[in-house]
Specification:
Elements: H1 21-30, H2 36-56, E1 62-64, H3 72-79, H4 92-101, E2 111-113, E3 120-122, E4 125-126, H5 137-148, E5 153-158, H6 160-166, E6 168-169, H7 183-199, E7 204-208, H8 218-232, E8 239-243, H9 252-257, E9 263-267, E10 283-289, H10 299-313, E11 316-320, H11 339-342, H12 348-363, H13 411-422, H14 439-449, H15 455-476, H16 493-496, E12 500-503, E13 510-513, E14 516-518, E15 522-528, H17 535-543, E16 550-554, H18 556-561, E17 564-565, H19 571-591, E18 596-600, H20 615-630, E19 638-643, H21 652-657, E20 662-665, E21 684-687, H22 700-711, H23 732-753
Parallel strand pairs: 1-5, 4-6, 5-7, 7-8, 8-9, 9-10, 10-11, 15-17, 16-18, 18-19, 19-20, 20-21
Antiparallel strand pairs: 2-3, 12-15, 13-14
Length: 754
């Protein structure tokens, strides 16, 4: 007999540790400073502390199998035995990390963004002959681990349809093959897994299917029906919760409703309860607490939503809208924030408490004091988010737009003016911006924040690092240099620290991929730039060399996308406020004599709505915001932009419309995927030739092959040579060797094409 679903749960939880314990353990393991036993012990402690804390907060439904050493999609590939032969080694962890990070002479699997978030996942490779086999050690192991603590858990897995839709065809697969063609084989492995979990006494399993909130074809919806019809009819299995988040299920909702699954989780923060009555007879796991943003939940609105869903569908449980992987651990640690702002924030721990409170209120008789908001005209309950206002003393209200990009001169005119000014060789070599952040720099930044060293001592170290980076690039023979960004902790946080309307945290770490973590700023009020941000260091770097040095800025869409954003203004208006600040910085860099300015927009693709009907409007205003930020530059100033790890080939027309003089774009890790669609690109293009997210160093022959491939699509007079992304996470030893090979490869081809 199926047990009832718990009244309160979360769809997932952060796994890096409140103090980034996993990051440190991983990097020590990778660098050979610790062994497997130490890494596994850190992981065990993190899982135990998570389960104990969730239970202590009163959460009834505890998730397991949400921990990962690198990424949950990669974990699923291992679970299914979908490991390409070239990565297989005697040691299972070595195999796992080879897929994620590469190995000697072996490039890693492709990496891209998890839907419209800044989390990256490893893209599986599936072919017609991929031999699937079950490896249930991880989910079973975590169930047993929690049970030894006296706690029952619900294993969480990426669902079969989403897994295959996110996978790519194995190289060499026949034309027309798609990974979803292997659905029947994959579902059989899931069926065996469910049988093993049932034998273990597991009551519920969660299968995540976020791909269902995007537009799906009739064939894909038929695959959903087939997969969950098959799994639902299994005689020996746990009860199934199918979780779809990041938007509305749309046409997939009645499909799931018609299958034998026992529960469906809906995102009622970014989506609605439209059609929820079709789920009558199942449990609706109502995601009314946001897993993506950090504002406290409006209790009255959320409760009104829950009651409306219960009235229309029957059984309701309270949950987060998605996994809490996307928010920090605990706002109470942020003692440096303005108390008025902190009182309005909820990180993962506070969100769990909100879920538990709402479940208690939903179960209690009677209504809360006060009048809950009325349902919207379409009969749907109002969204549970709360309109936010700025804390005392902060900017408030919206400024009139009054922005109309006058546009720059035509590209041909600009290209001629820039060629005369910059005098660059054919196939110019540059980097994306950052150079390695050494331990010495990180310690100095921490010491400055703690008051242990003064500003003058810190700035002396920054100047010395800039001198080192400029000298290294000149010695290696790069053509357009960067100052290396030693003064910057992060490409978004650094700007947030210098703009009004932002607050930054001290402990608000969020995983981006593997051991890489960021601290997203909190954008709570109107954005203004009190003074220039980057000009002083760019001017100093340029004074050290006769070669052009790029001014390095982060674009308005990316600054907003990688922050926790106020929700009392349309996102478009918030982005244009940031674009105003970037425009002022471009103007001041140009006046300081900087002839090349890079304004990065790696998040442009990330924010594209999952539904096609909403995409054109977003791309129109996102492009216009970028053009507004950059169009004040003269025709003699070369504007660069950069995009990485976000399937940018899917929005190439919008990237072209940015009207940047040079666009650098990830290409090495995806094996030149973007080159298949750039035939109509009309300006400078730098498809990356060095995957900086892997520790491996490409040799000159490999780089030359990649450049030769690019030259088949991009004319030599418009091809730039650069890494896939910034070099911040690599060591100087790796960077120097790789860049020397990049310069050598470019030199060989330059001689051939001159």
């Amino acid at each position: 007999m199926t047990s009832s679903f718990p009244a309160s749960t979360v769809l997932g939880y952060p796994r890096i540790g409140p103090d980034r314990e996993l990051k440190r353990a991983l990097e020590a393991y990778w660098e050979g400073r610790s062994g497997r036993a130490e890494l596994e012990e850190t992981a065990r402690r993190l899982r135990e502390s998570t389960w104990r804390r969730l239970a202590a907060l009163g959460l009834e439904g505890l998730p397991s199998n949400t921990f990962s050493y690198y990424d949950q999609v990669l974990d699923t590939a291992v679970l299914l035995g979908a490991v390409p032969e070239r990565y297989r080694q005697d040691d299972d962890l070595a195999t796992y990390f080879a897929m994620a990070r590469g190995a000697e002479g072996l490039a890693p699997l492709r990496m891209t963004k998890w839907f419209d978030t800044n989390y990256h996942y490893i893209v599986p490779e599936i072919g017609p002959d991929t031999a699937f086999s079950l490896d249930a050690a991880k989910p079973l192991g975590e169930v047993r681990e929690a049970r030894a603590l006296g706690l029952e858990t619900r294993p969480v897995l990426v669902g079969p349809v989403t897994f295959l839709l996110l996978a790519q065809a194995e190289p060499g697969s026949p034309d027309g093959f798609a990974p979803l063609d292997r659905l029947d084989d994959v579902v059989e492995v899931y069926a065996r897994l469910l049988a093993e979990l049932a034998a273990e006494g597991v009551a519920w399993v969660q299968l995540d299917e976020p791909a269902l909130v995007a537009d799906r074809t009739p064939a894909e919806l038929a695959a959903v029906e087939a997969a969950y019809g098959r799994l639902g009819r299994l005689e020996n299995r746990p009860a199934l919760l199918v979780a779809a988040y990041f938007g509305d299920l749309g046409d997939a909702l009645p499909v799931l409703a018609g299958t034998p699954v026992e529960a469906v989780a809906l995102d009622l923060v970014r989506g609605t309860a439209h059609g929820v009555e079709a789920l009558a007879g199942k449990t609706v796991v109502a995601g009314v607490v946001s897993g993506r943003n950090v504002w406290r939940t409006d209790r009255d609105r959320a409760l009104a939503t829950l009651r409306a869903v219960r009235e229309r569908a029957g059984r309701v449980a309270v949950s987060t809208s998605c996994s809490l992987l996307h928010v920090p651990y605990d706002v109470e640690r942020e003692t440096g924030l303005d108390p008025a702002l902190r009182a309005r924030l909820a990180f993962a721990e506070q969100k769990v408490a909100e879920v538990v409170e709402l479940a208690g209120l939903l179960a209690a008789p009677g209504d809360l004091p006060g009048q809950p908001p009325a349902p919207a005209e379409d009969g749907q309950p109002a969204a549970p988010g709360r309109p936010q206002t700025s804390p005392p003393g902060s900017p408030s209200g919206s400024r009139p737009e009054g922005r109309a990009s006058q546009g720059r001169a035509p590209y041909a005119v600009r290209a001629a003016a820039q060629a005369e000014r910059l005098k660059l060789p054919l196939l110019p070599v540059t980097t994306i911006g950052s150079f390695p952040q050494t331990g010495e720099l990180r310690r100095a930044r921490a010491a400055l924040a703690a008051g242990e060293i003064g500003e003058a001592e810190y700035e002396s170290m920054v100047r010395a690092e800039i001198e080192r980076v400029i000298a290294l690039q000149e010695r290696l023979g790069l053509d357009v240099l960067v100052h290396g960004e030693p003064e910057r902790n992060d490409m978004v946080q650094y700007f947030a620290e210098h703009l009004d309307g932002f607050a930054v945290t001290r402990h608000g770490w969020v995983q981006s991929y593997g051991s890489r973590c960021t601290r997203p700023p909190i954008l709570y009020g109107d954005v203004r730039r009190p003074e220039p941000i980057t000009v002083r260091w760019a001017r100093y770097a340029q004074s050290l060399t006769s070669k052009p040095v790029k001014g390095m800025l982060t674009g308005p869409v990316t600054i907003v996308a990688w922050s926790f954003v106020r929700d009392d203004l349309p996102l478009r208006e918030v982005v244009f406020q940031v674009a105003d600040a970037v425009r002022e910085e471009v103007r001041d860099l140009e006046e300081a004599g900087i002839g090349v300015i890079q304004v990065d927009e790696p998040a442009l693709r990330e924010l594209v709505p999952l539904r096609r009907a909403e995409q054109a409007e977003y791309l129109e205003w996102a492009v216009e915001a970028y053009r507004w930020a950059t169009s004040g530059a003269s025709e003699h100033t070369q504007i660069h932009t950069h995009l990485c790890y976000s399937d940018a080939d899917q929005i190439l027309a919008a990237i072209d419309a940015l009207d940047a003089d040079v666009t650098s774009i990830e290409s090495a890790r995806s094996r030149g995927r973007v080159l298949g669609v750039v035939g109509g690109f009309s300006r400078g293009l730098g498809p990356g030739v060095y995957d900086i997210h892997s520790p491996r160093v490409p040799d000159a022959d490999e780089v030359e092959r990649l450049l030769s491939e690019a030259l088949r699509t991009v004319p030599a007079d418009r091809l730039w040579v650069n890494p896939d992304c910034g070099l911040k996470t690599r060591s100087y030893e790796q960077v120097e060797a790789a860049l020397a090979n990049v310069v050598e490869a470019a030199s060989r081809l330059r001689r051939r094409h001159s």
